[in-house]
Amino acid sequence: MKLLQVRKGQLVYFNNELHKVYSVKPLAKKSVLMFRLKDMEQVASKAEQVSYYKPKHLDSFLFLGARYTLRDDIPAEPGGYIFITKPDPDYMDHYSLNEFEKVESVEGKDVVTTRQNTVKFKEFFVMVPGEEPGSNDITYLDKSKVAPEQLEEDAQLEEKLREENAIKPSIGDVYLNLDNGAMAMVIAIEQDIVTMGTGDKLTFHALYKSDSWNYLYSLNSTDSDL
């Protein structure tokens, strides 16, 4: 379904691939700012160039190179991930449409995330690692248009992203913290110690090996289309 109005958080297809809208700049030439779910590559487009998608039970997709299947019929587990599709936060909670959050604890069917949000069972899908039987792959709008070589690259994507994260970080690099959903920028480097905007300090090696921090992009990069 083509969109005349796009809002932050929506899942959309652009160039046949699944993206998430992270910002809308109405006055910009290309007003819709997105990142591709499979590898967090950023892109900008016009609203008429994207198609809306509403995620469903048993949808399967690549997120940061790893495959997950959405399920609404199983309980969440501590240490796992949820995908919030029907946000209804209480006044003390801070989350919005289509956010990924890591589970800290389970209270009945509801969960408390590592960001200290209490999310009700009706608000989220459980992200099950892997491709579940009977699942629907939504990574591409039309998989028949995807070359076999691209599918092979997708199969190796998780390892490729990990290797790319081994590159020495620079001030201005922005990372996604999967533990709390926050994005943080590298603000200082002293010898082999990186200081993030959140105050976290990590060695180059710890940042590369971490399961929590994933490189997104650098503010030093330029994009004439933005």
Radius of gyration: 18 Å
What value does the average pLDDT take?
Answer: 88
Shape: globular
N to C succession of SSEs: EEEEEEEEEEEEEHHEEEEHE
Uncertain runs with pLDDT below 50, 5 residues or more? 222-226
Major beta sheet, specifics?
Answer: 8 strands, mixed
Structural classification: mainly beta
Euclidean distance between termini CA atoms:
24 Å
Indicate the proportion of strand residues: 35-45%
Number of strand elements? 18
Query: How many alpha or pi helices?
Result: 3
Helix content: under 10%
Q: Kindly report the spatial arrangement of strands forming the biggest sheet.
A: 11-10-9-8-12-7-6-13
Can you describe what's shown?
With 226 residues, this protein is mostly beta strands. The protein has three helices and 18 strands. The protein has an eight-stranded mixed sheet, with no helix packed on it. Strands 4-3-2-1-5 form a five-stranded antiparallel sheet, with no helix packed on it. Strands 17-16-15-14-18 form a five-stranded antiparallel sheet. Strand 14 and strand 15 form a beta hairpin. The longest helix is centred in the last third of the chain and has 8 residues. The radius of gyration is 18 Å and the shape is globular. It starts with 10 loop residues before the first strand and ends in an 8-residue tail after the last strand. The C terminus is likely disordered.
Topology:
Layout: E1 11-14, E2 17-24, E3 32-36, E4 42-45, E5 51-53, E6 59-63, E7 66-71, E8 81-84, E9 99-107, E10 110-113, E11 118-119, E12 124-129, E13 136-137, H1 148-155, H2 157-164, E14 173-177, E15 183-190, E16 193-196, E17 201-203, H3 204-209, E18 213-218
Parallel strand pairs: 6-13
Antiparallel strand pairs: 1-2, 1-5, 2-3, 3-4, 6-7, 7-12, 8-9, 8-12, 9-10, 10-11, 14-15, 14-18, 15-16, 16-17
